[in-house]
Design goal:
about 220 residues; alpha+beta; Aminopeptidase; 7-stranded mixed sheet; 8 helices; globular
Length: about 220
């Protein structure tokens, strides 16, 4: 009797999974298998609670960098995976690249002197944005990217920014943990609305800082 084959993971299945509160991961870069995760406690960044330190606000105001969206998605995901430990294997990279081509996955890039120095990518469904990963090749580049991302999500009508898990780095920027049931309530509310990642025009550094009142 032939062994049951694992169901094929398609971009559409990934979208359905996120809408159900589940997301895919791999054990490491070279692991061909993908498994599904639904944490008991979920990390989120309240879109009105991003924590911007005075030093980060100063670096954002100084400029000296360029911000773009969706101009280097594959480069951003490759940079996010280019670390000793990563859950981004070839299958996940391919799935999110396809989701980007279909208009569901997005990237925000930070460049210094034309070179990609930081960025973040994630998936948008309804008014929920699922932040997948970020990277930094220069000091504070990922923090700058996250600040611009949160500002874009707020201006684009998003209600939820999911970080999946919480790390000390994310906690320092305002991320919190909520129980699974509370996350599902927030997710369902966000999925019942629409938002647009690409609609807001690019902001100014001063505008990003001014719209964030949680400075310290």
């Amino acid at each position: 009797m032939p062994r049951d084959e694992e169901p094929t993971i398609t971009p559409e299945l990934v979208l359905h999974a996120y809408a159900a509160g589940i997301f895919p991961m791999a054990e490491h870069r070279n692991d061909p298998e993908v498994f599904w995760v639904e944490p008991r406690r979920r990390g989120i960044i309240p879109l009105d609670g991003f924590h911007m330190s005075r030093s980060l606000a100063r670096r954002i105001r100084q400029g000296r960098y360029d911000v773009t969206i969706n101009t280097a998605f594959d480069e951003v995901i490759d940079a996010c995976a280019n670390r000793t430990e990563t859950w981004i294997n070839d299958q996940i990279r391919s799935l999110y690249s396809q989701l980007h081509d279909k208009g569901h996955a997005h990237s925000l890039e930070i460049r210094h002197d034309g070179q990609l120095s930081g960025g973040v990518y994630g998936l948008a469904i309804g008014a929920a944005f699922f932040g997948e990963s970020m990277f930094s090749h220069q000091r504070d580049a990922s923090k700058i990217a996250l600040a611009w991302l949160v500002d874009r999500l707020r201006r684009g009508g998003f209600m939820l920014m999911d970080t999946q898990f919480i790390t000390p780095h994310l906690a320092s920027l305002g991320a919190i943990e909520i129980p699974r049931a509370e996350y599902r309530r927030r997710l369902d509310a966000a999925l019942a609305h629409s938002a647009d990642f690409t609609a807001p025009p690019l902001a100014t550094p001063q505008g990003v800082v001014q719209r964030n009142t949680h400075t310290s």
